Amino acid sequence: MNQLRAQANGRPVSSGIPEATVARLPVYLRALTALGESGLRTVSSEQLATAAGVNSAKLRKDLSYLGSYGTRGVGYDVEYLRYQIAREIGVNQDWAVVIIGIGNLGQALSNYGGFRSRGFRIVALVDGDASRVGEMHGDLAIAHIDDLDQVVRERGCSIGVIATPGDAAQGVADRLVASGVTSILNFAPAVLTVPAGVDVRKVDLSIELQILAYHEQRKRPPLVQSEEVVES
Ligand SMILES: NC(=O)c1ccc[n+]([C@@H]2O[C@H](COP(=O)([O-])OP(=O)(O)OC[C@H]3O[C@@H](n4cnc5c(N)ncnc54)[C@H](O)[C@@H]3O)[C@@H](O)[C@H]2O)c1
Questions:
Q1: At CA 143, angle to CA 137 and CA 146, rounded to 5?
Q2: 55 contact partners, CB below 8 Å, separation of at least 6
Q3: Ligand 1 atom nearest to 129, measured from its CA
Q4: Using CA positions, which residue lies closest to atom 2 of ligand 1?
Q5: Three-state SS for 167?
Q6: What value does the mean pLDDT take over residues 121-132?
Q7: Which residue of 29, 92, 157, 166 is 20 to 30 Å from 119, comparing CA positions?
């Protein structure tokens, strides 16, 4: 029996699942979605592990935190496991998202249609530039940062995405927290200070690129050292 979590209204309330496992759950969800779309009804832990790019022992351990052990010789029911993981992550429900900073990145994020199918609905666009208030992006008009409080309250935003320049990010985070938002996705190059109980995730593509560069460097044969210069 899974003793790691209690249930309230059918929703997990205290998961006790390790952070590293939580970080892999969306990867399993994506792999299961693709497998389900290809018509697969059941999947072995090896198949799912390969699709998710992890080893199968780790996958089985991760899924055991959800109380999901699969059936010997059959594997996991793709749809049910998908449902279990989606429920655990919380993407079975709809999350309302506000984006702050509607420049290049903010507009690209607001135009991306893929969030909706994963349970995230962008419901508000906010910017500090008063001249852009009312500018339409899809069916959303840009609101002013001074109205953030009202926007968050009226549209029930629970996640804030910061896509402003770095020097504005802390001020925006403070405003988000003051308006009641407790989950922030930060794209700006700034380390945010937030009160306990507020979760911040930082996205930094340059760090990802640096990690790739590190591995790429090791795939290549060592550079031939230039001939030593002999000083006369
Ligand atoms: N994390 C990553 O991998 C990654 C990738 C690309 C860009 N970025 C960062 O994302 C941020 C946005 O980049 P961009 O190219 O879209 O910039 P941009 O200059 O095109 O847009 C920034 C927007 O923020 C608005 N803004 C400025 N101060 C504000 C405030 N106090 N309140 C609300 N809105 C405010 C501006 O009016 C503008 O519309 C930058 O910090 C950039 O460094 C991060």
A1: 155
A2: 49
A3: 37
A4: 204
A5: helix
A6: 97
A7: 166
